[in-house]
């Protein structure tokens, strides 16, 4: 599959590994892939993000939202709302854990920074592997042989979870991307 990835798509995957390593994460997660996409310039994916309001250097709000989700232990707003419906106050749980173990303690669970670090290449989480498989499916559905960073971005918006939710909160949805990249459907930014 990776032989079909363009230079830009490969750079996104390599950048995701770099983000995981700098963070001290045990595995490369979907959020690392999104952070790597946000780092790119001069690609179809970066063009799409900029056109929908996320230019390089103007991504602080999205990065802040990803950090807040990490602080919640990787739970999305939808997860928090579901817990709230059961009478569980996630903000209170985060607060108590951070009182006992320090700020960001839930975001550090399973991370090398908390458990003494890790050397060597990070494996990809199940979600990140599924994202790469979804990327291939997106390209195949469009009948495109080469897999670009725009296909990774489209796949991220199709999968449930923090990356898609965070992108949608900033006006980047599968529908808006499809409209922008291929002229299909109706684009709605912001």
Automatic annotation (TrEMBL):
Gene3D superfamilies noted in UniProt: Clp, N-terminal domain
Protein name: Peptidase
Species annotation: Streptomyces luteolifulvus
InterPro entries: Clp_N_dom_sf
């Amino acid at each position: 599959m990776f032989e079909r990835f363009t230079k830009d798509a490969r750079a996104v995957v390599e950048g995701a590994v770099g983000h995981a390593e700098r963070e001290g994460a045990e595995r490369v997660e979907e959020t690392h892939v999104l952070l790597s996409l946000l780092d790119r310039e001069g690609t179809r994916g970066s063009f799409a993000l900029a056109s929908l309001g996320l230019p390089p250097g103007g991504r602080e709000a999205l990065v802040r939202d990803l950090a807040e989700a990490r602080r919640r232990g990787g739970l999305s707003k939808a997860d928090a709302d579901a817990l709230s419906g059961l009478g569980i106050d996630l903000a209170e749980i985060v607060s108590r854990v951070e009182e006992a173990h320090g700020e960001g303690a839930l975001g550090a669970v399973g991370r090398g920074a908390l458990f003494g670090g890790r050397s060597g290449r990070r494996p990809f989480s199940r979600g990140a592997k599924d994202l790469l498989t979804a990327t291939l499916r997106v390209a195949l559905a469009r009948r495109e042989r080469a897999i670009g960073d725009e296909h990774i971005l489209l796949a991220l918006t199709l999968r449930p979870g923090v990356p898609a939710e965070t992108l949608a909160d900033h006006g980047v949805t599968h529908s808006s991307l499809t409209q922008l990249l291929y002229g299909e459907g109706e684009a709605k930014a912001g």
